[in-house]
């Protein structure tokens, strides 16, 4: 809202689907000036520690908001844990699981709660920011690949008002955020929880 009302020149906290949703709900037309990084979802151990030795009936916590739940399910599918129905896209829910050979139970919960409840789950699919705040980031087992559909869809962007993308100060901001120095800072500080794009 502050960007839309010209209190800010740019903001940097969201991915394109979030921005599209904001524009639709608020009658705005903010645009992306450039991509910076991707925050992959990861699978973290709870009561169980190995995806290779996945116990039958394991309880796996996933975020219950629409975009993150679909991403979590796609991550589980990419690691051979489940198979989703053909064509299940970024609106997929647990109801779209077509094959579940280990009879896992998908526990849908508020995203922040997955990290807090990890000790009561076999595994949790957790957003990087919640993993960091719960001191779990060094325990991640697998993450969404940097070349995955999710990485392309949910890359974090710098948003601006239309027409401002080519302003010198915005171009300078994008250049700085994509510099080798910034890339190195992201890699060293966030160790795979936040990945330069």
- Cα-atom radius of gyration: 18 Å
What does the largest sheet look like? 5 strands, mixed
Task: State the end-to-end CA separation.
Answer: 26 Å
Secondary structure class reads alpha+beta
The shape, in one word, is: globular
Number of strands: 11
Output the number of helix runs.
7
Task: Name the beta content range.
Answer: 15-25%
Topology order in helix (H) and strand (E) letters: EHEEEHEEEHEHEHEHHE
Mean pLDDT equals 94
Largest sheet: spatial strand order: 7-4-8-3-9
Weakly predicted, low-confidence segments: none
Fraction in helix: 25-40%
Summarize the structure.
The chain is built from 7 helices and 11 strands. It has helices at residues 16-26, 66-78, 111-116, 128-133, 149-153, 168-177, 180-190; strands at 11-15, 31-38, 42-45, 59-63, 83-84, 97-99, 105-109, 123-126, 142-143, 156-160, 195-196.
What can you see in these coordinates?
The chain is of the alpha+beta class. The chain has helices at residues 16-26, 66-78, 111-116, 128-133, 149-153, 168-177, 180-190, and strands at 11-15, 31-38, 42-45, 59-63, 83-84, 97-99, 105-109, 123-126, 142-143, 156-160, 195-196. The strands form three sheets. Strands 7-4-8-3-9 form a five-stranded mixed β-sheet. It has a four-stranded antiparallel β-sheet with strand order 1-10-2-11. The longest helix is centred in the middle third of the chain and has 13 residues, at 66-78. The protein is globular. The two termini are 26 Å apart.
